[in-house]
Structure formats: structure tokens, C-alpha cells
Structure prediction request, 417 residues.
Amino acid sequence: MNNFSLSCIGCNSIFSITELIYECPKCGDLLEVLIDYRRIKAKLSKSGWRKRPISVWKYFELLPYQNASNIITLNEGGTGLHKCRKLGAFLGLDNLYVKNEGENPTGSFKDRGMTVGVTRAFESGAQSVICASTGNTSASLSAYSAKAGMRRIVLIPSGKIAYGKLAQAIVYGAQIVQVQGNFDESLKIVLDICKRNRQVYLLNSINPFRIEGQKTLAFEICDQLGRVPDYMVMPVGNAGNISAAWKGYSEFLNLGIISDRPKMIGVQAQGASPIFQAVKNSRKSIEPIKKPETIATAIRIGTPISWKKALRAIYESNGTALAIEDKEILEAQSLLARLEGLFVEPASASPIAALKKLVRDGVIKKKEIVVCIATGNGLKDPEIVGRMYEKPIDLAPEAEIVEKFLGLSEAVSPRVI
Prediction:
């Protein structure tokens, strides 16, 4: 792994990629993986990587691992980039795409980061992996660590997680602990445990190896579109995904594979919007929200761990951030499903809700190319459908009654050709 190193985003200290650290030992700030562009460019030029099937590991020269035989994979990545013509026409956009990360093995974008993170844990010799989660991370960690044969531990905020996500962690055999508090309090406990016990490997997005897998989202979009989009609109919870996508575009730019980068737009729920509040007020830091509340459980986070990286992505790209009401999120979820046949969890619909405002305010123009990221499958949170939509009507088991209810009571003769 000589092509990679770890760097602190605060004090710029450099560390070996093999060190088992999650934050800077000198100043406590976040770490990120640096690549040696000269060496990587030389490797890519000889690899024929463009001809490989699209997936996370298509880009393995750009991912830090020691041995290909150690890779823990469930064939993640290669998710569909759906051109949404009807939804685009409704919103006033000619070139609207939705990258559906719900097509990943456990139904969310987390699988991209987890394949690299669990591979790193396996290579480090850790016996157990652990995370705090609002749902998707727990499902992904549990699946990949089951594949690796490692003990899996999940801390969740009590009563604050969609059962569709928790069910996955249960069936994958995770040891689940509910913490009487919110996500941020659960994450603090996880960090403390990992500092005390080196055999327990941390797999929240503070882990820079997680971000390495997630950056392949940007690589795939470039490959699928054949160019860089003008805008990339993403839900923001703990802020790792928007940070990772910006890192991916930046690496492709520095390698000469692309010549530009998109404007990054981060979308949060109104009741959990510290990134939005910072951007709105042109601040370089966030003010944590102590009791975040939103129906979109995947982004119900008041103190996103990767806020510095997220603000960097937004500011460097000349992008912006929005906060959306829960009602708007649910309307967008229904709109995407009914116009395009894409059923996504509430958090994943927040970019669609944001587009209404962005187009209305003239931020995004009709002809510009826009990619929205749907981070998770709608089946992750089926309870919301039961609560928000009308239940099917009960009718007697007679064709005439059903026909009358459906407005089909007048028989139509078959057409003779």
C-alpha cells in the first residue's frame, strides 16, 4: 500500500496507511487517505481498468488494501443511473438522473464504504467490528462482517431506527445494543470503546477507509454519464457521502480523467440541519443540534462527524445546502415512485424535494445535467407507508362489486382484428 498515506485535515500531519488510527493522534481532527498520483497514474495506464465491469472494485488501483485475496465483497456498486424524463418534465429539467444506491446488496450506499472498511478490518487482524447507526450502516456492517467471519456489534439510538433496517442487522447475526439517547451519543460510546480496545475495529464514517469505498460513487457517475454532471444533489446525515463523492471527483480530476467537477448540493431535513445552517450563514463551522427530529431517520443526525469535509466540498465546488420539511420529503418520495417507479426511503427523496426549490429559484437551469443520489431502498422504512398512506379497501369476493368500485362495470367487447 505504498501508493497511499493518511493525512490530517486539520494539522496536515502524515501517517502510514497501515497505522490503526481513526483520528489524528496529534490534534484529534479527521483523517483522509492521500494517493500518490504519479504512481497511481502509471498503474492505471497499464491496467485496462476502463474495460472492467462497473463496480466498486473496478477501481481497485485507487483503493487502499494489501492483498486482493483478502477483499470482502458482496458485489457492491454498479448501481443504476436512471434518466428520469417524466419527473424531469414535472420539475422543469431536461437532464435529470437518479443514481439508485438502493440497488446495492443490503439496499443502501453504505455497502460501498463497508466493502473497503471491512477488508481493512480483516487485514488488520481485528476480531470484532462496531458502529453506531441510524439503520443503514448497521445493516451493511452486519452483512460484510458476516461474510468476513467477524463479530459484529451495533449501537442504535433507542426508538429512533426504522425496523426494516434493524431487521437486517438482526438476521445477519449482529449483537445489537439500544442506547438511551440519540445517534451522536451512541457514536461517542463507540469511539470510546475503540480507543480502549484495539481488537474492536470502528466502522463509522469517521473511518477514512469507509470514505474510500464511497468515493467510487463519483467514479461510476463519470463512467455512466460519459462526463461530469453540472450538479450533484445528495442527502446529508453524518456527511460522509458528500465528502466521499467530492474526493472521488477531485481524484479523477487530478489524474486527468475528467476536466471539471460538479457543484455539490447537500440536502438535510429541517429538524436536523446543522450543515444547512452553516452554509446559510456563510460559516466555516457548525452549531450542533442537540435533539434532531425528522421522519427521515437516515439523516436524523445533529452533529455530523464529517461536517468539515462536507463544508469543504460545498464551498470548494461553489455549491449550496438546503433544508427540507418532512412533508416535502414525503411528497417527493411519492412523486419519484409514481412517475419513475423508484421506491426510495424518505431521506433519499430529500434531493427531489430540494430540486423543486432549486429550479424555482433559478439555481439550476433547464438544460443542466443533474444527478440526485437516492441513498437507500424504500423497503428500508416500510412503516412510513403504513402510517402515511391509505390502507387498501376491503370488498366482498364478487367480480361485479370489484368492477363497480374500479369503475369497470360497463363491459367492453374485445377488439376484433
